[in-house]
Amino acid sequence: MTISTWRSCIIATATTAVAVGAFLGGCGSTATSSGSSQKGDSCASSFDCADGLACIENVCGGTTVTPEDGGQTQTDGGGKQDTGTTPPGKDGGKDSAPASDTGTGPETATSAGLSALGERCGTTTDCASGLVCINTEEALGGICDLESFGLKPSAGAICGGQCVADTDCYELPVGNPTGYTACADLLAGGLAPSYTATCGTAVETDPVSQDCFFYKTYCLTTSKSWTCNTSNECTFTAACIPDNDNDGIGGCATKTRTGETPVNGVTCDATAKKCVPGTVATTPICKTAADCATNVVTPADTPASVVCTGTECTCFESNCYLKCNNDLDCAAGLTCNATSHLCQEAAGCSSDADCAFQLGNVKATCGKSGTCGIACTNDHDCSPSSGANLLVRNALGAFSGDVCDTGTGLCEPVNGCTPATTPDPTCQPVGMVPTFCVKPTTVAAITAVHSAITSP
Predict the structure, then answer these.
(1) Separation between Cα atoms, residue 367 and residue 409, nearest integer Å
(2) Residue 170 lies in a domain
(3) CB within 8 A of 375, min separation 6: which ones?
(4) pTM
(5) pLDDT tens digits, 187-229
(6) Domain check: are 12 and 132 in the same one?
(7) Domain ranges, residue 224
(8) Is 183 helix (H, G, I), strand (E, B) or coil?
């Protein structure tokens, strides 16, 4: 039986509730016809069909053929022959597709009887060009699916950038307290007859102070109020008057064009008289290692019963830590830094084994950049394609958004966004405001430090 007939039998069995006997009879199309069923009538075997017809997928159709190759020629229900080999012709015996088979994509089966997209297969050699046989862990075998998804990894590009240039930051935030959504409306309404005339003499306590501040801050690019930083965020860097109220004359802006507020807020630096990101107030435990000994301070990440004595502690970022001399002084998985004498986590990875444990996947590998990833040679190593799911319901699972980056040999995400100087319409807006597709800034990893678990 050729692969075409095998495939037809398998599909017929998988999609219709026929008896085993009917399956065996319906798939043997070389027997002599002797029945009365005409073309298009149902049948259990070719014996049910009239002379010259074969029972294919439980329907009488095509014509039975008794070839010289010992009866291996079959029909496909529509009359097209699948001989398994192409007889010699004008091309000297090379395979040639029949004139009616004009398909050029992987969805169209070839004249050699190869399976099309979504059809059953035993190995990839059973599938048409551009397809691979994917195991479905079913008794009926695999399914022919797309060999390549035709998508490129995003190379780290992400949605959500507030800006790519300083001028992008000049736009009234949605829901701002002035009640206006456009600079022209603010000028014509709250600041009539003109910004210069109304705000030239305005002071912090004036009723129009807030309107004047928002117009100057978000509408006048000449005010040089905003800077698009390396993280593609709008930062307010204008001059300010200490102790003046924010969002008013002499104060600082608390919202960006997307309506977001910095995590630590914004404040007016009393010395520089310039708006800067706010800081979280902290009380330092120490400034030098000597402070840890004289104040007998409990190290930041050690049990409360442990205190610093002598020179066994050091000061790091205003906290006291027990020093280490070697890796044996540190907890499992940490190493002792010979310079700082602090226990720290190893940065990135040093071997594939490290990544296999970190990601819980034996296909994980340690990349050139010292980061872990899933090794791949094709897109299917990273995710199902969902290409055959329309034909075979939920056969292979949903596309996860990852494809194989042939450059790195690792699975990388595809988010459909390409960095540009204009907002990307495919990016999810923030507070109804369009955002940019940007490449995130590479920030050096901050290595966490810990106290030693044994004193040197």
Answers:
(1) 9
(2) yes
(3) 363, 364, 365, 381, 409, 410, 411
(4) 0.47
(5) 888 888 888 888 887 777 777 888 999 999 999 998 888 999 8
(6) yes
(7) 162-277
(8) helix
